[in-house]
Design brief:
The protein has 162 residues and is mostly beta strands. Helix content is 6%, strand content 44%. It folds into two domains: 4-85, Beta Barrel (Elongation Factor Tu (Ef-tu), domain 3); 95-154, SH3 type barrels (Roll). The two termini are 28 Å apart.
Length: 162
């Protein structure tokens, strides 16, 4: 399991006090509200101290980058959070932890394939599964019976084949 996960992308400065627009890739910027540090690399070596998150307009300010010019130097950068800084509720997993999980058909009990990637769809995330065939399955309760790193059980219907 990866320790440092993508939090989102830093965009252009907003205002004069170092506020950066933040394209948050988590469930929402409030998910990161207790996080004190974001990182410029996926190994946690280049740390940025968070001064403040602003949920209403999805922005972030970093200590040492409180001026527009210095904040602008971070524009376009992907930032990461440390999974150890956030406690997930029981039975909830990061998408990254599900990649590679074996996918099983609820009705037949047969292995459908392996979860290769997850993409954000319009109404829900989409699971891309590869086995003998390829499937795209919406990640909603109607089709995902259970999902954990140890395995995913789906309700397979016609129309999911890619």
């Amino acid at each position: 399991m990866k320790r440092f996960l993508e939090a989102g992308r830093l965009n252009s400065p907003r205002g004069l006090k170092g506020e950066l627009r933040f394209d948050c890739w988590c469930d929402g910027i409030d998910f990161l509200s207790g996080v004190k540090y974001l990182y410029l690399d996926n190994e946690g070596k280049r740390r940025l101290e968070v001064k403040a998150f602003r949920e209403t307009v999805s922005t972030v300010i970093f200590v040492g980058y409180e001026e527009r010019e210095t904040a602008a130097s971070l524009t376009g950068r992907i930032v990461y959070f440390d999974r150890e800084d956030i406690t997930l509720p029981e039975g909830v997993f990061y998408n990254d932890d599900l990649i590679g999980a074996t996918v099983t058909d609820e009705i037949t009990g047969n292995t459908v394939g392996v979860l290769k990637r997850i993409e954000e769809g319009v109404a829900s995330d989409l699971y891309f599964i590869e086995g003998e065939k390829k499937y795209i399955v919406p990640a909603v309760e109607e089709f995902i019976v259970s999902a954990s790193p140890s395995g995913i059980i789906i309700r397979l219907i016609d129309g999911f084949e890619a």
